[in-house]
Structures are given as structure tokens and as C-alpha cells.
Specification:
- The chain is an alpha+beta fold.
- It contains 15 helices and six strands.
- The protein folds into two domains: about 35-60 and about 155-330, Up-down Bundle (Multidrug efflux transporter AcrB transmembrane fold), CATH 1.20.1640.10; about 70-150, Alpha-Beta Plaits.
- About 65% of the residues lie in helices and about 5% in strands.
């Protein structure tokens, strides 16, 4: 039996039906109902943000010496334990249980050091503790290094970072509002705030140390998140102009645009994540470049959240704002799915009101059910009526 093919469906859509999910994704032929699943993505974001906020309230951030201020002693020793390092502080009148102790090992040289960080201390106390650690491990005073940072310096860095973030948001919002429209500008700002808050929550939840390199990485990932969002919004604007002469729900415009740029977004994200993973695994893990770890971790977290927010946060927010306009309000809730969405993704124009097609489909089904057609009925037609002859 020969298959009946809907003439409204393009040849590309028929070929794509023969491919598997991976093949359709690779060729950019997906027909995923992102708009219909928008609440799932937004709900997941709200849950993750609440978890991060709870961690910030209960645990706070693991601030580095540059932000928190204080004194850190670096003690070279292969035998000194964390408890012994805290005991030295107790002997000098400093509460060792509140100190931050970190054991570091250089993979190349095999040198093991212990960093002990406490709050701000006087110069006399700092020198006395330095001498106590030197005596404890049998080293000279010069071999035990010490570093002191004022808390005001960390506060200055934090204020500058916040000012840079505010200026960045204002400039980005002005550019997107001028280049695209103000609704897209607001959605992009919300998506970037989502990325920053989610990244900070991950750092708090996992106990990663927040350093100036981390702040630089956060500002860097905002640029990537913005780029990915602009790619989606530009395609949305293009399709909005393309369908300007048709009555089509805004959910269809959003779905078509996101399916068309999905593979590009995934390729861009993978191309950005792979070098960061090499920094984290090879540079920090294998080669022992510990200074790269904070920067690479922040980049990795930010790249993942930025890719997610451009699809599941920024785009749904624009769709929900645009569908309230008079042009799209009457069509809200009637977006295409399945074969109809796939047909639109492949470049076809809307095929009329779905309600009319549904009613005509139901009426034809009822006629077929009441009187099934035979082969003779299909292949023949009603005879033409004879013309009446004129009387002479």
C-alpha cells in the first residue's frame, strides 16, 4: 500500500522523519516544543536559585584572603598535620578552630606546603606565629612566608566589581533595546543576573574559594551568556518579520527560532567548554597549575548556566511578554506541535487557523465513519444532469 503524504509538508520534513534524534539534531531539523515546556525550565531555575540562596544564608561564601582580609602563613613541611597547625595558633593566643587551613602539594617538585589563614593581626603577633611555625617544622624563619592583606583592600575590589557589573548591565540593556527591542533587553538582563546568582550559589554550595580571578571569570561568562542570548533573539526577530503578514502565535515564532539555532548554540557551548575543561583537568589537575583552578571553575560553571539560560530563561520570558500584545493575544495557547511545528521549522508558512482545520478534520472523520468510501466511489463521479431540449 502506497503511503499518503501531506502535500503541505516539505520534502525536507519527510527526509528528516527517516533520521533518528541525533541525525535531526545534527542537521538542525528538530521540532522541540520549547514554548510548551517553558514552565519546566523556569521552575528548575527557581529551584536552583532557592538552593543557592539557602546555601549562601547558611554557609556563606568561601572568601579568599584578598576579599576577607587577614594573615596567611605558608609553612613548607612534609609531616605537619592540620591539627598541629591549629595547635600552634592556640599556643599563640589565636583561636585555631576558626582558622582556614589548606594543604597543597606541587606535583612536579613534590613539595608539600600548608597555608594557614586567620583574621587581621598585629605585626608582633604575625612575626611570633611565623617563628613558632619555623620552630615546629625545623625550618628557618625565611622559609616560612607570611602575607597580610587589609580588609579595606578587599572591600575596594568588591565595590569596583559591583560598579563594573552595573555599568555592563546598563550598556547591554541600552544596546539590545536599540538593536532589537526593550522586552528582549529586559529578558537578557534577567538571564545574566540568573547566571551570576546561580554561579555564586554553586560556589557557596560546593565550598569553592572566591578569588579576584573568580570575579574576572564571572564578568567573562556574562559576555558569553549575552552572545548566546543575542543569537537566539536575532533569529526570533528575523522570523517575526518573516511571519508579519500571517496570523501566527508568538509561541510558534519562538519555537521555530529556537529549533533553528539549537545546534549552533550547542556547538558554540561545546567549543567554549572544551578549552576550559583542558585548563581545569590538564592545567590544574595534572600539571599542578593551581592558580588556574579558580578561573577555570568559574568559567565552567558560567558557560553551562549561560547556555541554559539563553534557551530556558531568556526566550520564555520574551515569549510571555510578547504574547500579551494585541497582535498575539488572541492566538495565545494555540501554538503548533508535532508535524505542523516541523513543517514551520523547515520554512513553510502557516496553513491557516488550526481551529478550522480541526473542525474540518472532525467533520470529515464523522462522514467517513458513517459512510465508508469504496474504491468505485473514489474513482467515479456523479453523472452530469442532461440538458433539456428546447421545443421548436
Amino acid at each position: 500500500m502506497t503511503d499518503i503524504i501531506d502535500p503541505q509538508v516539505s520534502d525536507e520534513a519527510v527526509v528528516s522523519n527517516r533520521r533518528g534524534p541525533g541525525g535531526r539534531l545534527y542537521h538542525g531539523e528538530t521540532a522541540i516544543d520549547f514554548y510548551g515546556r517553558r514552565w519546566w525550565g523556569l521552575l528548575l531555575s527557581v529551584v536552583l536559585l532557592l538552593v543557592g540562596a539557602g546555601s549562601l544564608i547558611s554557609k556563606g561564601l568561601n572568601l579568599s584572603l584578598d576579599f576577607e582580609g587577614g594573615v596567611v602563613w605558608t609553612v613548607p613541611s612534609a609531616t605537619l598535620t592540620e591539627d598541629e597547625a591549629r595547635a600552634v595558633l592556640d599556643d599563640q593566643g589565636i583561636e585555631g578552630s576558626r582558622a582556614k587551613v589548606q594543604v597543597l602539594t606541587n606535583n612536579d617538585s613534590g613539595l608539600r606546603t600548608i597555608d594557614v589563614q586567620v583574621g587581621e593581626q598585629t605585626d608582633a603577633v604575625r612575626r611570633a606565629v611565623q617563628q613558632a611555625y619555623a620552630d615546629e617544622v625545623g625550618a628557618t624563619l625565611d622559609e616560612v612566608s607570611t602575607n597580610s592583606v587589609s580588609s579595606t583592600w578587599g572591600k575596594t575590589i568588591t565595590d569596583k566589581a559591583l560598579r563594573a557589573l552595573i555599568v555592563f548591565f546598563v550598556l547591554v540593556a541600552a544596546f539590545i533595546a536599540w538593536r532589537l527591542e526593550w522586552r528582549m533587553a529586559m529578558a537578557a538582563i534577567v538571564a545574566m543576573l540568573h547566571d551570576v546568582l546561580l554561579s555564586v550559589g554553586v560556589y557557596s554550595l560546593l565550598g569553592f574559594e572566591l578569588t579576584p580571578a573568580t570575579v574576572v571569570a564571572f564578568l567573562t561568562i556574562l559576555g558569553f551568556s549575552l552572545y548566546d542570548t543575542i543569537v537566539v533573539f536575532d533569529k526570533v526577530q528575523e522570523n517575526q518579520r518573516r511571519y508579519s503578514g500571517s496570523r501566527i502565535p508568538y509561541g510558534d515564532i519562538m519555537n521555530v527560532s529556537m529549533n533553528q539555532v539549537l545546534m549552533r548554540s550547542l556547538n558554540t557551548s561545546l567549543a567554549a567548554i572544551l578549552p576550559v575543561l583542558s585548563l581545569l583537568v590538564l592545567g590544574s589537575g595534572i600539571m599542578g597549575a593551581v592558580t588556574l583552578r579558580e578561573f577555570a571553575l568559574a568559567l565552567l560553571v558560567g558557560l553551562v548556566t549561560g547556555s541554559y539560560s539563553s534557551i530556558f530563561v531568556a526566550s520564555p520570558l520574551v515569549a510571555m511578554a510578547k504574547e500579551r500584545e494585541p497582535r498575539f493575544a488572541s492566538l495565545r495557547g494555540s501554538h503548533a506541535v508535532g508535524a505542523e511545528l516541523e513543517r514551520l521549522v523547515h520554512g513553510a508558512l502557516p496553513s491557516g487557523r488550526r481551529e478550522g482545520r480541526q473542525r474540518s478534520s472532525e467533520s470529515s472523520d464523522s462522514i467517513t465513519a458513517s459512510a465508508p468510501l469504496t474504491a468505485e466511489a473514489v474513482l467515479t463521479h456523479m453523472p452530469r444532469p442532461r440538458k433539456k431540449k428546447r421545443r421548436t
